[in-house]
Amino acid sequence: MNFLVSICIPTFNGERYLQEALNSVKAQTYKNFEVIISDDDSKDKTLDICRKFQSEVDFPVFIYHHTPAGIGANWNNCVQHANGEYIKFLFQDDILDERCLEMMLQKLEESNLKICICKRNIIYEKLDPQTEKWIEDFGDLQMKLSTFDYPILTSKIFSDKEFLSAPYNKIGEPIVGLLHKDVYEKVGLYNTHFRQFLDYEFWYRALKKYDIILIEEPLVSFRFHDLQTTNVNKLAQINEKHLYFMFVNKYLKRHLHKEVRKKHFPTILERLIRKAKSIIG
């Protein structure tokens, strides 16, 4: 097992936690990797930290400037510059377990699949009601899926009665995955029309073509904090639920459970019957 892995780190004003993320890269037990950093015109010390890291390590580190065009465009810039057979995302405020690459590659080799995901630890600075609610809702994303044939996630989850119940992301943030580069070539890159739902949309496009194997052990740590994209989008009142449901309606509707399909995407006849019943009372 000697595949080149591209660890992709999209950055933007990430000086607060970036060094901790980079330290977790240096600690990897699997050593055949490169680091691809795509920076969205940071104004803080992000690039200084990246260049210092580049000068200190003995593995390849490539730093690319990217003109800001949304987080999806920056993610895609990483992928487009990646030379590895496998791609592993790491965000500037998150952490890899030292065994992350080794264990995920081994699982992919054993299963003969092209996508592996793992559970994640949640890092938080304060356990307030907002954080507790987030952990309760998003801490374990596969736990409600009765169609999950452990440890393999397949497109059968689209027919699960809970598929369109929150949380909509049943797989995880991009950092939970290790993907063969073929996946991006066959499925396409991240949809830059989305600012918040782009990882959900990508995972489900991929799941239509590829099964996903899950490692139950948390091999990444996801940091929940006020400055992460989800919270920033929430404060900016960015809600893309309607775009996500448009995607589901166009690409996944025929796979949905009949009750879910009828509830969210009724036919004209079903809408007329529903309207008539409401008038009659």
Short recap of the structure:
With 281 residues, this protein is of the alpha/beta class.
Provide the descriptors you would attach to this structure in a database record.
Spore Coat Polysaccharide Biosynthesis Protein SpsA, Chain A, nine-stranded mixed β-sheet, alpha/beta
Question: What does this protein structure show overall?
Answer:
Strand 2 (33-39), helix 2 and strand 3 form a beta-alpha-beta unit. The chain has a single domain, classed as Alpha-Beta Complex (Spore Coat Polysaccharide Biosynthesis Protein SpsA, Chain A). The protein is built from 11 helices and 9 strands. Strands 1, 2, 3, 4, 5, 6, 7, 8 and 9 form a 9-stranded mixed beta sheet that branches. Residues 231-237 have low confidence and may be disordered. The radius of gyration is 20 Å and the shape is globular. The protein is an alpha/beta fold and 281 residues long. It has helices at 18-26, 46-56, 71-81, 100-111, 129-138, 181-187, 198-207, 229-235, 241-251, 258-264, 268-280; strands spanning 5-11, 33-39, 61-65, 86-89, 95-96, 115-124, 152-153, 177-180, 212-224.
